[in-house]
Amino acid sequence: MNTFQQLGHGALTAFQRLGRAHLFLFAVLAGVPSLLLRLRLLIQQLFSVGVLSLVIIVVAGLFVGMVLGLQGYNTLVDFGAEESLGVMVALSLVRELGPVVAALLFAGRAGSALTAEIGLMKATEQLSGMEMMAVDPLKRVIAPRFVAGVLSMPLLAAIFSAVGVMGGYFVGVGLLGVDEGAFWSQMQSRVDFNEDIMNGVIKSIVFGVVVTWVAVFEGYDAVPTSEGVSRATTRTVVYASLAVLGLDFVLTALMFGEV
Amino acid sequence: MMDKNNNLVEARGLTFHFGSRVIFDGIDLDLQRGKVTAIMGPSGTGKTTLLRLIGGQIRPSAGTIHVDGHEVPRLSRRELFELRKRMGMLFQSGALLTDLSVFDNVAFPLREHTALPETMVRDLVLMKLEAVGLRGAQRLMPSELSGGMARRVALARAIALDPMMIMYDEPFTGQDPISMGVLVKLIRDLNEVLGLTSIIVSHDVAEASQIADYIYVLSQGVVVGQGTPDELHQSESEWVRQFMQGMPDGPVPFHYPAGDYAEELLSRGGGR
Asked: Which of B85, B92, B96 sits opposite A134 (nearest CB)?
């Protein structure tokens, strides 16, 4: 094949996959209502997707907040504005770092696990087996995992931000001597619920949908061999992370860009 | 309905292409009710594909398949699922759900498709497990089972909803002689006791001839031989003889198609 053919072939394959991914998403969404009757499946997945991601989210949030406190203080103190540290830390976390970093960690922790699990279920004929037992794997396996991911992501991002603010507080107030009252009161007066917090929540919902969608699709679409599953897992982390960063720019431009 | 004859599964002119590769080229099959039919052939003849066609997981490129009077490729998803509740399939790997115990695996189809109270599910599961001799293993997880046990659990699961037929995908592959004997006996006994129709896809000539009432031999997309096990063992066809007696060379060449040997050795060929 010459270069042009390869280019065309690659593009066609990519668009075919994109099409399959969308059909897959609609099929999964159609399976969501029946999940209401089987909350146990959802709760199991909320545990393995959400609760088990808590440790990495809390630890990462703490460190990110501490670094923000340190860096923010060093810059702000030059202008004598170190009392604004609380605002700076809170806004950075709630608007950007909370949703984005939590989503990246989520893709690495929960997304890769979802892809590997579903891919291996496919490789060991468990999904085929379900279909032959007249059980739709999209409803029984994929839908609970998808919903669990979408519900977990905003909560994890909120926890990330909250822990991060505490990290900034420990460093700023505890170590560097920023006035405690100013730290909290400035934060309270300058962080707006709709403008800042809700926009962050919307971001994290979008990221949750995208990361989980990529993860479950890659698993379901994986080539059912050990190599295929390993590739699919890698693709989940790469695609989901890039999608999060790209979408973050788009969402930020829509929400905060005064163009 | 096609009750004029006694066929549970009927394929006519069944053709299936995988990309440009022809897997089946217009084959006709009649699988009779209440019988054990073996589909045999060398590896890579698409025997598993045939089971997927019967189960409606893939659609034929041409031709028809009827199961119990329904034309499988034309069924809606809902109708197909209704039909599948009456078909059991035993996968080569067993395909047990790895996050559920043996008990829950067998209970899975009952819980998914019936509203039976849990006490009755329990009784049914214990009966099915007893039938395959693994009632004592009910609490084990699939990872704790040997290959033969996993297949028996899968068999118990396949008969959980009392299907009309069971499809076995290479049930004898990779079994030690004892579990092989157990499976051979189980397949035959279940077919008699439950009044099933069994389809066995296999390349194990000895075991399949032992339990099958009728055998189809497939190769390169066509039926090359069919008949009762005795008829096939007496077959005049060189091809069928090679397969039934396991001779390394014959109409099916030992060599994968290749260019001239001497020429390839002498060529300076740098890489592929």
From this structure: B85
| Residue B173 tokens, joined | 């592959």
Residues 6+ apart with CB under 8 A from A34: A139, A143
β-pair partners for B200: B38, B168
Average pLDDT over residues B156-181: 86
Are A132 and B89 within 8 A, CB to CB? yes
Find which of B52, B75, B104, B112 to mutate to test the A interface (most A CBs within 10 Å of its CB). Answer: B112
Terminal C-alpha separation, chain B? 55
Contact across the interface for B95 and A136, Cβ inside 8 Å: no
Spatial separation of the C-alpha atoms in residues B239 and B62, rounded to whole Å? 26
Find, among B142, B267, B62, the residue nearest to A126 by Cα: B142
Is there a contact between A218 and A235 (Cβ–Cβ < 8 Å)?
yes
pLDDT of the residue at B173: 80
**pLDDT at A237 (0 to 100):** 96
pLDDT at B272 over 70: no
Instruction: Read off the pLDDT of residues A124-164 as tens digits, 9 standing for 90 and up.
Output: 889 988 988 889 999 999 999 999 999 999 999 999 999 99
The yes-or-no verdict on residue B24 having pLDDT over 60 is yes
Please give the mean pLDDT across all residues of chain A: 93
In this complex, do A134 and B57 lie within 8 Å of one another by their Cβ atoms? no
Q: Alpha-carbon distance A136 to A32, whole Å? A: 12
CA distance A10 to chain B (A): 18
